[in-house]
Amino acid sequence: MLAERDIQAGTPFLILASGGAPVVITTDAAFERQFQVEYFEMGCTSSTLVSMRAYNARIFAYLQATYGKAWRRRVRSDVVGLAQWHPQQ
Question: What is d(CA 18, CA 35) in angstroms, rounded to the nearest whole number?
């Protein structure tokens, strides 16, 4: 899986799909540094929603295992699949 490869390489992403005009939030860089993950804007030529959610779900699980709940308080709410993801208890 692509997410596994990215985690192993130390280059995990969180996929965003805001359309034609990417949205950059001033706190993005601090989040990326703290949690060693980068936001990736797919734009209007994005992959399928199912693929983006599956990729992000694996990255969410990685962040949860590595950082606990801390990342969830600071992650952007518009990350694809975040609202539907529920961590294993």
Answer: 22
